[in-house]
Amino acid sequence: MPPAGARHFVISSTAAKHGDIWSWTMPDGRIAYRMSMSLRGWITETDELITVGNDGRATTIAIRGFTDSGDATEDFTVDANGTARWKTAVDSGSAPFAGKRYNTYGGPLLAAERDVEALVTAGDKGIDLLPTGHASITIGESVELAGPRGAKTVKLAFIKGYGFAPSPVWLDGDNKYFGIAGTISLLPEGYEANGPKLKDVQDKATAAMVRAVAHKMLVPANRTPSLIDHVLMFDSTTGQYLPERAVLIVDGKIAAVGAAGSIKAPSGATVIDGRGKTLTPGLWDSHLHVGGDDWNLLQNVATGITNYRSPGSTIEDAQDIFKRRAAGDLIAPDGKVAVIIDRKDPLAAQGALAVSSAEEAVAAVDKIKAAGLWGVKFYTSMNPAWIAPAAAEAHKLGLHVLGHVPAGMRPLDAVRAGYDEVTHINFIMMQAMPQDVVDKANTAARLEGPAKYGKDVDLDSPEMKAFYAELAKRRSIIDPTLTVWEPSLTSDGSAISPPYAPFADVAPASVVRGWKIGGYPLFDGLTRDDFRKSFRKMVDLVGRLHTAGVTVVAGTDGYGLELVRELELYEQAGLSNAEALQSATIIPARMTGMFDRTGSIEPGKTADIILVDGDVSKDLANLRHVQTVFLDGYRLDGAALRQASGLNGVPK
Questions:
Q1: What is the mean pLDDT of residues 370-390?
Q2: 3-state helix/strand/coil string of 386-444
Q3: What is the DSSP string of 313-355?
Q4: What is the spatial distance between Cα 110 and Cα 9, in angstroms, rounded to a whole number?
Q5: What is the mean pLDDT of the chain?
Q6: C-beta atoms surrounding 555 within 10 Å
Q7: Pairing mode, if any, of strands 167-172 and 177-179?
Q8: Contact criterion met (CB below 8 Å) for 85 and 534
Q9: Chain-centroid distance, C-alpha 611
Q10: Which residues, in sequence order, are CB contacts of 10 under 8 Å at separation 6+?
Q11: What is the per-residue pLDDT across 582-595, written as a single tens digit (0 to 9) for each?
């Protein structure tokens, strides 16, 4: 345990406190950090010890503990010859230490304070990193906060070099590390309530940066008529790939669709030769949490996502995105938003409307409707007795009802109580789990149960077939997010998981390193092969649902760039190539009520279309090879979008 007097930082959101980080100096002079976090039941317990050299750089680092991505063990040393050596659960290496700082793979978040302060000292020249990379920091505006010892001035700064885009961090008046803010914040004890204020300031600063990108691309010159001719076109309404087609776009709409060579290009039109390419409706990510990361929205468009369904954003973030997108200040997909409702509890979802009764749950539903949003999402800590009345209110108001399955309920219970949709395949697998797993579904049991028992579930038992049949009869929708569970269950640290491997050569080095994980920690004598068998059952379960007539929509619950892998897994489950692509085009458009303007390539619809290199009918992976994105009729260059969003080239 941390000693008395240790510096104390709190991990929190507007919904709850999620954890703590402490720091103190050991008797031998080493710097210690201790992190303990439970985020919606996912546990992180890590410790870090750092020896600091005369120049302020760490010369030894030892990290121990675990996260939901696996073993957190990490060691870094510098020998007498100035050679740095590191070893983690996923990599190891050595390099000359001169002039560089080691960027840890993991460890307590607060330990990054030393790197932040070194970046401040380095100024414009920045710092070279080990294993690879370069980082720099820019300091911006100041803000005054209220705290336990009176007013305090802090400064917003942005760091480049650790991710796809500049990441915000807060400094104190002396340019020392103060904390980070966002949907989840890490702030000194006593300052937690300032998280939303700081998030608002940094979001506005980020908005100014992405506004410049939008104003460069969303210009009249990119909205002139376009004719794509001699192209393979995916007709999502029939599930057919049609060769030798022509599509004309005028004034942001699809003006005509016909045989190749049959449509005359208007004066001033851009004519694109579609030979060797595929034209499809813009992709939908039906599990994309929007809000707080404008750069990610830009990257979504760069990877062909023109539409989304957010299964959990704050009202304020959603309304802000809609407003800025409509004004032409933000390049982002268009979509619909649900808001999370959860019981007030330490395990509550971050960003949720937290409630303490059925009456408060109904009032939260009313609030979501009044905000003009599309749906409500119930979460795992909800009291099961509150679901039916809150769902009934939502349906009365015309809202879509979706969610995780609350602890104590099985998915069929949730559907019978009013769910239109169940998110995540592990919650569908919960139908076959032991009762003690079901009762703890608001903890890590929601993954550990399916990971342990899933491999042994008989997907063709009478009980499971009856389950599928009732879901189909009720017209239930399933959002599997297989790519959430594939890295966790199948990874062993030896390779980057399939959702991310195609981007390994075009993403920043520090991001790529983070994609390589050791996998969810093993327990109860289970092996990684056991976990892989359980994941295979999850994939097969999607196939059984589809065969039974249950509607499946494709979503990632990630960056969004995992979407094509999600579709590839649906193919493995037994869906055809076209059926998989329909789950990311026309089906979510119908689900959200946006089919009148998107989801298919038909005259009169909004031109939300993507042109990709290669034949998608032969390989869904070609969806990653985006050449041109038509967003609201704007003709946007794929290469320029990728560069602006932090991708250095075309993924594999």
A1: 98
A2: HHHHHHHHHHHCCCEEEECCCCCCCHHHHHHHCCCEEECHHHHHHHHCCHHHHCCCCCC
A3: --HHHHHHHHHHHHTT-----EEEEEEEEEESSTTPPTT-EEE
A4: 8
A5: 97
A6: 31
A7: antiparallel
A8: no
A9: 24
A10: 17, 19, 20, 186, 187, 188, 189, 192
A11: 999 999 999 999 99
Q: Encode pLDDT of 410-462 as tens digits.
A: 999 999 999 999 999 999 999 999 999 999 999 999 999 999 999 999 999 99
Six token digits for residue 379: 């979460």
498: preceding bond cis by omega (within 30 degrees): no
Give the pair of three-digit tokens for residue 15.
């919904």
Residue 14 pLDDT > 90, yes or no?
Answer: no
CA-based radius of gyration for the chain: 25
For residue 21, the SS3 value is strand
Q: What is the C-alpha separation between 170 and 38, in angstroms, rounded?
A: 24
* pLDDT tens, position by position, 175-233: 999 999 999 999 999 999 999 999 999 999 999 999 999 999 999 999 999 999 999 99
Across residues 630-634, what is the average pLDDT? 97
Residue pair 298/276 in contact by the 8 Å Cβ criterion = no
Distance between start and end Cα atoms, the chain: 47
Q: Label residue 353 by pLDDT band (50, 70, 90).
A: very high
The first and second tokens of residue 471, run together, are 């879901």
Q: Which of 459, 528, 526, 440 is nearest to 488 (CA)?
A: 528
DSSP 456: G
Which two tokens mark 266?
Answer: 């208007």
Distance of CA 216 to the CA centre of its chain: 26
Cβ–Cβ < 8 Å for 381, 38: no
Rounded to whole angstroms, how far apart are CA atoms 453 and 574? 22
pLDDT (tens digit, 9 = 90+) per residue, 240-250? 999 999 999 99
pLDDT of amino acid 450: 98
**Up-side HSE of residue 487: CA atoms within 13 Å toward CB?**
25
Q: How far is CA 428 from the centre of its chain?
A: 21
Please state, as a whole number, how many other Cβ atoms lie within 10 Å of the Cβ of residue 137. 26
Annotate 494-548 with three-state secondary structure.
CCCCCCCHHHCCCCCHHHHHHHCCCCCCCCCCCCHHHHHHHHHHHHHHHHHHHHC
In order of 168, 388, 496, 505, 518, the CA distances from 511 in angstroms are 16, 42, 11, 11, 15
Residue 581 in tokens? 């692509």
| pLDDT (0 to 100) of residue 186 | 97
Residue closest to 422 by CA, chosen among 398, 451, 443, 446:
446
pLDDT at 149: 85
What would the two tokens of residue 312 be? Answer: 């959990």
Entry pTM: 0.96
Q: What is the spatial distance between Cα 57 and Cα 552, in angstroms, rounded to a whole number?
A: 51
**342 phi and psi, to 5 degrees?**
-140, 160
**CA 599 – CA 590 distance, rounded (Å):** 8
Return d(Cα 285, Cα 264) in angstroms, integer: 34
Q: Retrieve residue 316's tokens.
A: 């304020």
Q: Per residue in 35-76, pLDDT tens? A: 999 988 899 999 999 999 999 999 999 999 999 888 999 999
Q: Say which residue the tokens 């813009």 belong to.
A: 282
Of the candidate ranges 10-19, 503-512, 613-622, the one whose mean pLDDT is the lowest:
10-19
Tokens 């680092």 found at:
61
Q: Give the separation between CA 72 and CA 90, rounded to whole angstroms.
A: 10
Helices (H) and strands (E) in the chain, counts: 18, 33
Q: Which residues pair with 44 in a beta bridge?
A: 37
Please, which residues bridge with residue 628 across strands?
611, 637
